[in-house]
Design a protein that fits this description.
Blueprint: H1 4-9, E1 24-37, E2 40-53, E3 57-61, H2 68-76, E4 83-88, E5 91-92, H3 98-108, E6 109-112, H4 124-135, H5 140-153, H6 169-180, E7 187-191, H7 199-214, E8 218-222, H8 226-231, E9 234-239, E10 242-245, H9 246-251, H10 257-266, E11 268-272, E12 277-279, E13 287-293, E14 296-301, E15 307-313, E16 318-319, H11 321-324, E17 325-326, E18 329-330, E19 333-335, E20 342-348, H12 349-358, H13 360-377
Parallel strand pairs: 3-8, 3-9, 6-7, 7-8
Antiparallel strand pairs: 1-2, 1-4, 4-5, 9-10, 11-20, 12-19, 13-16, 13-20, 14-15, 14-19, 17-18
Helix pairs in contact: 4-5, 4-6, 5-6, 12-13
The chain binds adenosine-5'-diphosphate and magnesium ion.
């Protein structure tokens, strides 16, 4: 049996409240987009709530015409929302003029499109230098050196002095990724960057994005490829201009799309450092938690006055009042493991209760999971 109290007392105290994503790099609040068409207004995005933290690799999936490109264009400032607010690095881009937007885009955003969109009259290296010429963060000489460095980074340095027409699709997309990195932006937006490539080349370009995330970039990537969608850190699904988090759909398979969309807007994602407490025994636990990354440990008191890890709750599983509470206070402590961080989505009971009241099967699912857990884990 493990006795965590003594081990914990030697560790630096961690309040556990502190987010590992203090900087919400991208935030959309109440964003709507309506296009005027001959048939009248077409609503392409509706009431979008979305927060993306520094270092996240977010996949955007959804059927053709669901609003994925429209969403990316709102963040890229390529198009304007009809309603709501869009913040990039804290800047309210919905209120920037064209000049301000171009400046922000140049510094903060690297954009990669499905059809590369390289300028055909320029060589590869000139295409990569163009954003640097616009922002002037680097001297002329540095720009050329940096462009070569970036082309080398993405593996196409030998094509630096060729026009795009002499390159294959995969090579052109690599040049486009190098161009997106020109001013070393913290954020990369990619709209189906591999949609026009054969599967082998697509894999190489996708690996490039994985490497960029490891180097600290924040990436929002629209993809049709379900294998890619499994390899991002977080997937959001767009359906008819509304979004929901994929893990919610996996955790509560009987909820309707409408309920998932509603619940997503009520969720708050929270990271906990290794060893930090999420719910403390004896304190009121008034929220419902879904583990979205990693796993949590349930710590229970033992008859001899010690503590033990009574259970692990894995990614995609949830915990809350039903199994942890008796008479209003938690009967166990839940914390991040001592050696790894964890991310949870937090839902208030009002939200959960509304979902349960609308979905008998979800209610039954949750009740049966709670029963199993009480039985298996000896939480009395
Ligand atoms: N400029 C526009 N004018 C009118 N309708 C548009 C315009 N752009 C996109 N749409 C419509 O908005 C919906 C979402 O488009 P889009 O964001 O491109 O979808 P996706 O990228 O998911 O395929 C589609 O029905 C599309 O026809
Ligand atoms: Mg699109």
């Amino acid at each position: 049996m493990l006795r965590f109290l003594s081990r914990q007392s030697t560790k630096k105290r961690n309040t556990g409240k502190e987010s590992l994503y203090p900087e919400r790099l991208i935030q959309l609040h109440n964003v709507g987009k309506a296009y005027k068409t001959q048939a009248g207004e077409f609503i392409a995005l509706k009431d979008i709530e979305l927060a993306i933290g520094a270092g996240e690799f977010v996949g955007v999936i959804g059927k053709s015409g669901s609003g994925k490109s429209t969403l990316i264009n709102m963040i890229a400032g390529i198009d304007r929302p009809s309603a709501g607010e869009v913040y990039v690095g804290g800047t309210p881009i919905h209120s920037l003029d064209e000049g301000g937007m171009a400046k922000l885009r140049g510094h903060k955003l690297g954009i990669v499109f499905q059809f590369f969109q390289l300028l055909p009259v320029l060589t590869a290296i000139e295409n990569v230098m163009l954003p640097m010429d616009f922002c002037k963060l680097y001297t002329r000489r540095e720009r050329r050196e940096r462009a070569l460095y970036l082309l080398d980074l993405v593996g196409v340095a030998e094509h630096a002095y060729k026009p795009p027409s002499m390159l294959s699709g995969g090579e052109q997309q690599r040049v486009a990724v190098a161009r997106a990195l020109a001013n070393d932006p913290p954020i990369i937006l990619a709209d189906e960057p591999t949609g026009n490539l054969d599967s082998k080349t697509a894999e190489l370009v996708f690996q490039l994005f994985e490497e960029l995330v490891l180097s600290g970039k924040t990436i929002l990537l629209v993809t049709h490829d379900s294998d890619q969608a499994k390899r991002v850190n977080r997937a959001i699904i767009i359906s008819d201009g509304e979004i929901f988090e994929e893990y919610l759909a996996r955790t509560f398979p009987s909820l309707t799309e409408r309920q998932l969309i509603w619940a997503t807007s009520k969720l708050q994602l929270q990271k906990y450092h290794a060893g930090s407490i999420i719910v403390r025994q004896g304190e009121p636990a008034d929220k419902f938690y879904i583990v979205t990354k990693g796993q949590v440990e349930v710590i229970s008191p033992t008859p001899d006055g010690g503590q033990c890890v009574a259970a692990h709750i894995e990614s995609g599983e949830y915990f809350g009042e039903i199994e942890l509470l008796q008479g209003g206070a938690s009967i166990a402590t839940v914390r991040a493991p001592l050696d790894s961080e964890v991310e949870v989505a937090i839902m208030h009971y009002d939200t959960l209760n509304k979902l349960i009241s609308e979905s008998e099967s979800t209610k039954k699912e949750i009740a049966s999971v709670a029963q199993e857990r009480l039985k298996d884990n000896h939480i009395h």
